Amino acid sequence: MRTTDTETGAGTGADPKAADPKADAAAPDNAADSASPDSAPADAASDEARLTREAESQLSSLSTAPGEERLNVPSIGLVGWLRWFWRQLTSMRVALILLFLLSLAAIPGSVVPQKAVDSVKVEEFQKKHDVLSPVYEKLQLFDVYTSVWFSAIYILLFVSLAGCIVPRTWQFVGQLRSRPPRAPRRLERMPAYTTWRTETDPDEVLGRAGRLLGRRRFRVDREGDAVASEKGYLREAGNLLFHIALIVLLLAFAAGQLWKSDGGKLIIKGDGFSNTLTQYDDFKSGSLFDPDDLDSFGFSLRDFHASYEESGPQKGTARDFRAGVSYWQGPGGKEKQGSIEVNHPLEVGDSKVFLNGNGYAPVISVKDGKGRTAYRGPVAFLPQDGNLTSSGVLKVTDYRDAKGRKDQLGFQGFFVPTFGGSGAGTMFSQSPSLKYPVLFLTAYHGDLGLDYGAAQSVYQLDTKRMKQFKKDDGSPLAKKILPGETMELPDGGGELKFEGVRQWAQFQIVHQVGEGWALGGALAAIGGLAGSLFIQRRRVWVRAVAGPDGLTVVEMAGLGRSESARLPEELGDLAYALQDGAPPAEDADQQDAHQDDADRPPPADAADADSKADAADADAKADAADADAHSDAHADEPADNDEESAETSPRGERQ
């Protein structure tokens, strides 16, 4: 390499002394004298650095390791990242992941009590779980279906489905507008294939094939010597229908949550209801609900019928619930008669009235210390078990004691429609039927707490600021009352009378939008899924060309988008149907021979005998000729056999 460097330096006019170390050693004294003593170490260091760089360059030229040079790749940019994110979001993989996440997100809504469904259960859960409740509150587990994270999954799934459907729809429209693909050159390579030869003209064969495939609902296109057809486009249409139906379901579900209203009302027999917000016992609605969206109607409870099993292992089980109502629609609407049963609601406009429960309301009258009626009417008691053992509360605000002082009364207790008797030792009802009604009450007086602004339940009594009435012996006042009996208050404070019993029914009034769309979407999704699973897209080609022998060679082949055992069978059916107009050549010859035999007149008896005799003579002559030929053939065989046997004996010795 030194020689190369020297030659290079000479060729370029460089100083030979700088290239040859020997030249440096033999340099004149004046050159050494011209260099200062301080520059000698610097020159040595520069020479060492130069030699090091040359060695590294030589090593790098001999190495096969990848270089450290960076590739000049342009940055993807914001638009590129957005495009990548859109492609990922609209992929089928991400859509399936979002569906899975949505199903997982719905689990807490089924396990954890929801405020929109039952706020009382939420309060009870929070009291029992003081540690988990704050965590659940921050995670919005008490409002799962309106939470931020559930809405995010919901919206992303909606966008993913929409982004997946739009391009596939345009692609499918393009496929419908395009012609079926033309026939391949080698049809015999297709999974299903058949061929035959016929005397029918190729044009006629192709014409018959096109008409046959058209009757079988194939899209047909003829080009050159072949007919191309395709069928099964409903498979992709079913796939698109399924995805569109999912979007419809999502929209219907969203509309139902945003514009819905749901309220309950307990109505005692003889009372009525008007569909306004102030008439509901409890009411909840969607975030976009407007009170003006409520349908204008009302109804009254005329009668209520309930029947139960009276004996056997199913004793007490409900058999029938039916509420007879009178309802009207719109201001000044004509009153109509109707019936509401379990799972058979009353439909008025866009609202439905469901029957949810029933119970009893004892009719109670209360007189104050002055003998004036302070209260009279039915009081609904809420069932506590299947036999309608019920608890209830009566609050009397307009009451004065024997001295005329204003006070408030409160009664709470139990009602049983069928009392088991004193010997039963229990206050629980023995049957839900109204056979032996008994009312058991305790009485309080004082401040009911209605003037403090806080809402109270009509079915609960707050006794913090009240005192219980006492008997003369100092025991709490409590009494079991039968219909028609009274309960006397101490110190001439008045009396309470149990006058009778009336029935009540619990109704749920639901205004739900999008139910029809949801039902249609569900049915469409089922139909689309069935089409995408059971319909196979397949193609069939028919080629007919004239052969060298003058016969027409017909080829049929089929190809499916997926493996199916029905494709060969379908191709066989098509080939069999096409052979009615283009029969195979062998079958045509046989038909002509049979036709000639049929047209030939039958022979006479003498002719039959002569023909049989001639046939017998011909057979005899043929047998004789065969025998002669056979004997001649065997006459030549010994020489050959001898020639062969002359070579070796069976033992390998020459004879």
Description:
The protein has helices at residues 2-11, 16-19, 21-25, 29-34, 39-62, 77-89, 92-111, 119-128, 132-138, 148-177, 202-215, 234-258, 515-534, 566-578, 585-599, 605-645, and strands at residues 192-198, 219-223, 226-231, 261-268, 272-274, 282-285, 297-308, 318-329, 336-341, 346-348, 351-367, 373-378, 382-383, 390-400, 406-416, 438-446, 466-468, 478-481, 486-488, 495-511, 538-546, 552-560. With 655 residues, the chain is of the alpha+beta class. Strand 8 (318-329) and strand 9 (336-341) form a beta hairpin. The longest helix has 41 residues, at 605-645. It is elongated. It starts with a helix and ends in a 10-residue tail after the last helix. 20% of the residues are buried. The model is unreliable at 1-39, 59-66 and 603-655 (pLDDT under 50). Keywords: Cytochrome c-type biogenesis, Membrane, Transmembrane, Transmembrane helix.
Distance between the termini: 88 Å
Give a count of the beta strands, DSSP E runs of length 2 or more: 22
> Which residues sit in consecutive blocks of at least 5 with pLDDT less than 50?
1-39, 59-66, 603-655
Q: In percent terms, what proportion of residues is strand?
A: 25-35%
Q: Please tell me the overall pLDDT.
A: 80
**Helix fraction bin:** 25-40%
What's the shape? elongated
Distinct helical segment count:
16
Class computed from helices, strands and strand pairing: alpha+beta
Radius of gyration: 52 Å
Query: Which sheet architecture does the biggest sheet show?
Result: 7 strands, antiparallel
Pfam families: ResB
InterPro entries: Cyt_c_bgen_Ccs1/CcsB/ResB, ResB-like_domain
Transmembrane segments: 94-112, 148-170, 240-259, 516-535
Main location: membrane
